[in-house]
Amino acid sequence: MQKVDHIICGEYLLPMDEALSVIKDGAVAINGNKILEVGPSHEVCKRYFSDNLIKGEGKIVLPGLVNTHTHAAMVYFRGFADDLPLSEWLNNHIWPAENKWLSPQFISDAVELACLEMLKGGVTTYNDMYFFEDAAGEVSKKIGIRAVLGSGILDFPSVSAKSADEYLDNAERFVNNWKNDEIITPCIAPHAVYTCSPETLIKSKAMAEKLNVPLHIHLSETEWEVGETLKRYGKRPVEHLEGLGFLDKTVLAAHCIWVQDNEIELLAKRGVGVSHCIESNLKLASGFAPVAAMLAQGVKVSLGTDGAASNNDLNILSEMSTTAKLHKALSKNPTVLDARTVVLMATRWGAEVIGIGNKVGSIEKGKIADIIVINMSKPHLSPLYNAYSHIVYAAMASDVETVMVNGKIVVDETHLTTADEAEILHKAKKWSDKICGN
Length: 438
Ligand SMILES: [Zn+2]
Prior knowledge:
- By secondary structure, this protein is of the alpha/beta class.
- The strands form four sheets. Strands 2, 3, 4, 6, 7, 16, 17, 18 and 19 form a nine-stranded mixed beta sheet that branches.
């Protein structure tokens, strides 16, 4: 018998491995941050024991959820401006507020709240695009959530830089600061084809290649963007990026709503990962991404929340439910986006499209332990015939009971272990008072 740091058991264990197996009465043995063994409890517990054992009765165990597109700090603009057209929302509300309030301290306090919300809802990794990302990295590391952080790049000035070259310099410095970190992965994030010139996009791509880090971009989010790109470059957004040599498997493209068949083919051919952000798209009335068609063509589609100003939460379980249902209705086919596929999109595929699939995203021997436990002893989760079905169609963020990131328990019996939750909420209130001018 070998002593290990943790053993996590589940009445249902969903490793999200290649076979998409379901282990009834399963267990995972974890030492340090590594998964040593996965299998039926009676076998795992024959070989390993631990002082930290989570019993499996009434529990579903699965890999941590991955939020592949967000702007975490925007939680401080949650509910600040709603029910407006995208251009008015951005130009008259969000961008002026960002220019007035963003600072490293704002980012640090806001991202702390975002991390609390995400971890308590079972999200163990988030893929971010924003500014002052050093502050986001420090606080994410302190709270204990895994993150891929993209230093935002634009052609126009904001509080964080005055020119495209200054954003690029900031991004290079940021990547070098975090390159070898255990849970933070730096990335380069040119905002979109309508806010970055071809020259800025080419420079961003070259920098990502030189520094060997992923790229994160918004792509084909609105019909306006397609019209504008056609007007400026005579090509649709995906074709435009293809022409610049931008597209490959290191790219995560958020939204991809207004894409035609030839563009879907290009995304598939180049191995570009997509982040589908349905609740933000619905709220801003941006349109519907052709997810069923993308999946059919072999595009790897994952799930994102986008920023909390347009969602208004960072709840991947809710994205899963909305995604699964909406695409059935759109395609008039209830068999598309079945529950198992949607869990795959929110876990292993999520990790793969942001370049960390070799480390996390599934519960397999040798991988790093990012694991969540859902408590099924609730009226809305009883009885249980199919664990995948419950996760997608019935579970709520508040059903997440235990969260492990990098082998460390960061949410224990629904409470954050790494910081004071009341203090984080208090800081949010203080900032909102300031933003309202109270
Ligand atoms: Zn976004």
